[in-house]
Amino acid sequence: MTDTWSFAKHDTIPSVELGVVPFEGHAYLLAFLAAEGELFAPPYDAVRSSITDILTDLDASRRPRQLPRDDVTDQRLRTWRSVFETLGFLYVDSRTGTLTATSLGHAVRALFGDIRRHVDGANDHLARLAVRVLGRHRLRNPLVNEPYPEDADIYPYRFIWRAMLQLDGKLHWEEMNRVIMRVLYQRQEQSAIDRIRDVRNLTHGPYDDAAIQRLGQPAIPEDAETKRRVTPWFTQAGFGGMLIAGEDDANGFRRILPERRELLEEALSEAPPPFPLDAGRSDQAYLKYLTASLTLDSPEIAGTDALNAQRVLDAVERFGTTKIVCLSGLPGTGKTRLARLVAARLSEGDPYRYAEIQFHESMTYEDFVEGFVPKVDGTGFVLRKKTFRMLNQRALADPSSKTTYVLLIEEFTRANVHAVLGELLTYVEHRDRPFRLALSQEEERVAPNLVILATMNPRDKSAIVLDQAIARRLHRIELLPSADQLREMLVDRLTTEDLDTLITWFTRWIGILPFGHAAFAEVRSAADLRTIWLGSLQHLLLDSAGQVREQYRDVNDSYPWR
Fold first, then answer.
1. What is the pLDDT of residue 76?
2. Cα–Cα–Cα angle for 543, 547, 550, nearest 5°?
């Protein structure tokens, strides 16, 4: 029985880089274009500042290269200016002495910006897929032939992420070897993290031999290969440099990439799904469990569902780039189910391209677009993108502008829609117009490939008084209670006699019922018809005093399974 994490005893996992490599333009050209409107005169501070910014960005991509220099001589800058003028990218205004980009220069800068956004979008997609899979991975699993205790319940990659987030975004390879790799149970996680923090507080600088010994005994015996046998855990937890830097810093620490911190915090805010018993029986079953979250449930659409789904798809094709396509109907008319079926079809079952949110009375702009949230370490607040902006930016960054992303808003009219949408109310309709966000003051535009679906109950008070500014930005599709759909749904669950009796009653009162056919979706037998009525449906007919409302008395009295 082993009491530490496994490691390669005869070979080591090589360094792996899995991110999509961005195409890099000429650093000096991009720096000159970025300095448009600035004075081009010694000491050329604006151009030098732009070069420094670009070098910082290139260095952040963590790939070896021959970088340009930010201490380039004045003469060299003048030479580059002459080259770029000759090629038609820019010129120095003779009157003001400022750099001015030509239409060619503007086009080049925009194209490189588009390429970078698309690469960033592809890497974001890959990182989110990685987190979905790695976050489910258990230490004890069929893929490794190690004698871990049967009750070992640690999720090693989640633990590494949590430790790094709580420890200033970094972890030393000795901390990994002497503390992290000795944890086999979730109940031990916090004490291990606290132990590392205590040792750091006593060290006040880079680790020395005494500080390393305070961490504890190594999981991997010390020799010339120890570090190489520890670092594969960083490689795997970082998904080949996508989440965690692929190399140590000067003091031996690996760091969470700043652009992935929010993603990892989001992943750790939710518990991993229950581990199915059969997932531990074979490699194939375990891999199926790991990748189960990578696709949306997308059942076949048939019967009346197919007809209604086509109505929604037609509306999306016609109005999806200028309006919110809203499914309007009573509770129990299948709005949510239909919206999810359509969303799965439009997004091709890719959860990265789909998000769902439910509006409610206390929903705000800060919950939907962007808002401040507490930092993990409790030291203050940080501005975070919320559901709309996260999905919208994925859509904007997608290399194929024809790839559809879908946002589903449940109970659309339950919130103060004006307050929640803010400036989006205008720009959903005008997607080619950029605008500035209220909090971050960053420029944004609504992606043309983002479809916004919504559901609403037309009898809600908030829906009845919906103002014209909102109403004209909706394309409504009415979903009515349907006796045909009720029959389709229950034909294999009830006897012919019971089903006919229910259909007769439902058809008689269909015009005034406060619910639709899907209210009976959980019926499995005639006994359920009574249980569901007494437990939920009858209560929809009652007033605040618990009495059946006057308009529903005959409905209630005539129900056959009271």
1. 86
2. 75
